[in-house]
Amino acid sequence: MYFSTLVLASLAIICLSAPSVSADQQPIGASEPNTISSSWTKELISLHRHLITTESISGNEYDVGKWLSKYLKDDDWTIETQKVNHDSSRLNILAYPGKVRNPDLLISSHIDTVPPFYPYKIYSNDSETIISGRGSVDAKASVAAQIIATKKLLAEKKLKKDDVALLYVVGEEVHGDGMRAANALELTPKTIIFGEPTEGKLATGHKGMLGFTINAFGKAAHSGYPWLGRSANEVLVKSLSALMQLGLELPKSDKYGSTTINLGKIEGGVAGNVVAQNATAQIAIRIAAGTPDDIGKRVVEVIKEATEEFKLPGHEDEEMFEIVFAGKGYGPVDIDHDVEGFGTITVNYGTDIPNLEKLDGQKRYLYGPGSILVAHSDHEAITLTDLKTAVKDYEKLILHSFV
């Protein structure tokens, strides 16, 4: 759910003036609804805290995976780990409470985060408890609420041990290599519940994604005699200008809005008085309609056309740029949302959903507490109310899977 204006204002004041509350004290705001019992609330806060305090920036997920594996193993869950890209320090976790490793229901999210790491903090005011830190929303809130919801239903005998498995993967925040590796686990669930911040609503779908790097090649020269060289920076700038124009022409849809182009990272040259020999840019296109193949072809065409003027006499066949696509990309992803009692939302971010091969007739749901608008920021935070509500909502989704 979105923070209200009051809560956001309160958070800013609290961060500046309120004393930090020890995590062991686990405060609960006076007006928070009693969505789950105090004992489950304590375990929820503790689990969420441990996940956040264990730094797990993409590529450095080993410690949090090791801790989470032990936490579940201590509850008599069977744990399987899977190396990602043959790297023993990067492990997916498959956990199941019964004897069946491949049940009808799979619950999944990711345990990596974006950089940089921000420490865990928990604050309480007259009306709310606020928890901040890297991953507090994206997506360790989903991981914690999913696990507590599953354990709670098992304890209440509303869910059988052989009905469910958990899959927590690495690398979602970069290239999705963890979930793609999980295809080798040969899991065939009838239903998958994915966890990402959706404001406590069911996502009806999300935009597609095409990522790539442009490498521009020039010829170094003295800046006083630029005609003796070719500026890779100029080649790149001309390419990026053409891309931004292309962005105005890319397909739109009623459901997802406009296809957008983000110039994420740009580097080039070695000094102000040297004609740049190399330059590079990393680009992300969020696809609202169409296919990544068609959009990728248009990208190549406009850059090629835009850089024709930089060909040097006698070097017309010399390569001036290369485009390196980060995988094949994917188009817009429609997601199941046929569960009563939930609001719905479409989101602009990508998820691991398209990275896991879909079976015919398989149901896929996307839900999670917290807002994407604070994820990836220096003020990433969630309310305890939203975290507790997510436990109950995941319970509803889990039970719906067996209707």
TrEMBL record:
Per its UniProt record, what Pfam families does this chain match? M20_dimer (PF07687), Peptidase_M20 (PF01546)
Q: Which UniProt keywords apply?
A: Hydrolase, Metal-binding, Signal, Zinc
Q: Which CDD domains match?
A: M20_ArgE_DapE-like_fungal
Q: Give the InterPro entries listed for this entry.
A: ArgE/DapE_CS, Bact_exopeptidase_dim_dom, Peptidase_M20, Peptidase_M20_dimer, Peptidase_M20A
Hydrolase listed as a keyword: yes
What are its cofactors? Zn(2+)
SUPFAM superfamilies in the record, alphabetically? Bacterial exopeptidase dimerisation domain, Zn-dependent exopeptidases
From which domain of life does this come? Eukaryota
**Record flagged with keyword Transferase:** no
Q: Which GO terms describe its molecular function?
A: hydrolase activity; metal ion binding
The positions making up the signal sequence are 1-23
Q: Where is the Peptidase M20 dimerisation domain?
A: 204-309
The similarity annotation says: Belongs to the peptidase M20A family.
PANTHER family, per database record = ACETYLORNITHINE DEACETYLASE, PEPTIDASE M20 DIMERISATION DOMAIN-CONTAINING PROTEIN
Name this protein carries in UniProt: Zn-dependent exopeptidase
